[in-house]
Amino acid sequence: MKYLVSLSAVCLLLGMSVQAAGPDTATRELIEQLRLDEAEQPVRESPGWKRPERIVVMIPGSLNDMRAELLASFERVSDGIEIVTVSGREFTGEEGVTLAEAQVILGFCSPQLIRTAKNLHWLQHFGTGVDRCLLSPEAQDADFILTNAQHTAGPPIAEHVIAMLMMLTRNLQYFHHLQQEQVWQRPPDTPSPMIEIGGKTMLVAGLGGIGTEVARRAAGLGMRVIATRRSSREGPGFVDYVGLSDELLELAAQADVIVNALPLTRETTGIFGREFFDALKQGAYFISIGRGKSTDTAELIAALKSGRLAGAGLDVTDPEPLTKGHELWSLPNVIITPHISYMTDRGIERNVLVITENLRRYINGERMMNVVDIDRGY
After folding, report:
1. Cα–Cα distance measured from residue 109 to residue 146, given in angstroms and rounded to the nearest whole number
2. Residues 6+ apart with CB under 8 A from 340
3. b/e map of 221-254 (b: 16 or more CB within 10 Å)?
4. Where are the beta strands (DSSP E) in 104-144?
5. Which of 161, 216, 353, 358 is buried deepest, with most CB atoms within 10 A?
């Protein structure tokens, strides 16, 4: 219920705009703030595009409380096009027929949806990660435009990274445990040394929307930031050096802190393994907010127990959810959160703005934002 106020405000903002002429002020500011990517060509130039006759919206149970406001936002840019809703839980019967006929779906990418939606031309995924969908066999021959909510979760995830880093470097997890035990005990008995992060080097593996927000905050705290990205060596001014993917080990050897902000693809699965951890400085820190399967858990544990890693902050794990009794739970130099770094009081607001603007652009045949390269996986 706490999201309803901000979402209502978004609806009012959207209602004041002239949608055919372009995005409203709030959306323009968000696009600039998050540096949202635009496709090179207008969608009207893509094969199979036409003005849709119907828009299908998948509304999960978790969003039922804001169903009316979500639909009102989409209706403001729909230009009279019919909007129908499905739960997204059933892919047979009447709901299956609706999905099978759909040209446009706002919802969640899944193997079942790809199998069912035979006439799909554009799918707007409500979330950011699409690996569970695109790593499936159904996606191999997929022929539709996929957009997601990338960048919109960048600010809260970046703050989560910094929170984990501060907690580890100040040993707050250790002192919180002592507080619960009502024990007043000062160093040197902490699991790892207490350090200052100013002047230290952070490597951001994956300088996308989330990685860029992490880098921005680390630089603001006085850290030297280096990064890797697959597509190019370009980066913002607050990043000291941007390397390509094949420079990961070389750059990792320079870093005091490594942040995994990579999407999960076939190439990144298990990339943080023995060779990676062996390349690190003694006493480095590892923070993972990408995907759990990009890290070899056994090798991570070995690096933590040997002291190669001074600590790790994990919002994602492999397996996920982490099972009871798993060794990671009991390591004193590990902080674990249950894949919640994206959660924020402003998340729904950003998502609604981006999804609504993409809907407006599709209807008008304009350049879409956050287009996923299906072959590349992100």
Report:
1. 8
2. 315
3. eebbbbbbbbeeeebeeebebbbeeebbeebbee
4. 104-107, 122-125
5. 161
Query: How far is the C-alpha of 249 from the C-alpha of 281, rounded, in Å?
Result: 11
CA dist 205 and 124 (Å) reads: 26
Q: Are 335 and 313 in contact (CB under 8 A)?
A: yes
For residue 234, the one-letter residue type is: E
Q: What is the DSSP letter of 83?
A: E
- The 8-class DSSP code of residue 262 comes to P
- Rounded CA separation 11/74 (Å): 9
**For the chain, percent helix, then strand, then coil, each to nearest 5?**
40, 15, 45
* Residue 176 annotated to the active site: no
CA–CA separation, 223 vs 218, rounded Å?
Answer: 6
State the DSSP code for 85: E
Give the pLDDT of the chain (378 residues) as one tens digit per residue: 333 344 444 444 444 443 456 888 888 998 888 888 899 999 999 999 999 999 999 987 777 788 888 899 999 999 999 999 998 777 888 899 999 999 999 999 999 999 999 999 999 999 888 988 988 888 888 899 999 988 899 999 999 999 999 999 999 999 999 999 999 988 767 778 899 999 999 999 999 999 999 999 999 999 999 999 988 899 999 999 999 999 999 999 999 999 999 999 999 999 999 999 999 999 999 999 999 999 999 999 999 999 999 999 999 999 999 999 999 999 999 999 999 999 998 888 898 999 999 999 999 999 999 999 988 888
What is the dihedral angle through the alpha carbons of 281, 286, 290, 294, rounded to the nearest 10 degrees? 60
Q: Rounded to whole angstroms, what are the CA distances from 61 to 87, 91, 98, 124, 191?
A: 8, 16, 19, 18, 43
Give the rounded distance of the alpha carbon of 194 from its chain centre. 30
- Rounded CA separation 247/96 (Å): 46
